[in-house]
Amino acid sequence: MDAIAALKPTKPVLFAGLDEGADIPADYVAALREAGVPYFPAPYRAFRALAALRTETPVRAEAVPIPVTLAHRGTLPEYLAKQALAPAGIPFPRGVFAATVDAAVEAAASLGGAVAMKAQASALSHKSNAGGVALNLRGEPAVRAAWHAMHDAVAAHAPGIVLDGVLIEAIGERGVELIVGARSDPEWGAVILVGFGGVQAEILKDVRLIVPGLSRAAIVDEIMKLKSAPLLAGWRGSLPLDVGAVADLVLALEGVLAGTPAIREIDLNPVVVYPEGCVALDALILAD
Prior knowledge:
This protein is an alpha+beta fold and 288 residues long.
């Protein structure tokens, strides 16, 4: 400390010990830090920190908080999660919640074309496993048949579950499927997960964790570090996909977490990415 004071340095100074196992008094380390001198127990640790500073990703201003309205606490099923997140700019398919079979028929007719029907209940997190998803439904007879078959299938799978109703959604084009999740941890703060998803998310395990504060460009760079990122860049003559739209989704989720402290977790899987834009096909919110 005396040497540092005598030098009166005009450039940043750090302290790196030569014996990592040496017993350095805690008050000595505290004095260094109070003087603005970072302490490292060994040179290689100092070099690692300097390298990290050199390659540090540019940061942006803190996210603008986006408060959303939650229908209730606990697990919000898909239709309520989408109602909460849509005003925050999260892109979802056109859809209508239906509590009765007649409402489901009317919803399908209003959307036009082929539709998907998905069972809705807070306790039903994996709808497809319970027979709670029907695709490519066209016309009233198909919608009515799917409604009754779906209720029977869910009742057989989990007799204690009572459905709120179903979500009727327009079916879009196929694309590359990602998973995008957000979690607010009391100790670690917010973190966003982006990876290749759909039903294969748990098998692929190809994900990146993104901390708040990154710029849109930096988030794009993180996404392009995924092992399967060539699929996003234009694979074998296909068009490059809109990774920027996924970055915008990440920024929106960051804002939602900042503006709605009650939210503990958000799960969007799959998020289908297109050459222009992306769409989250499913959503789930856990709130305290």
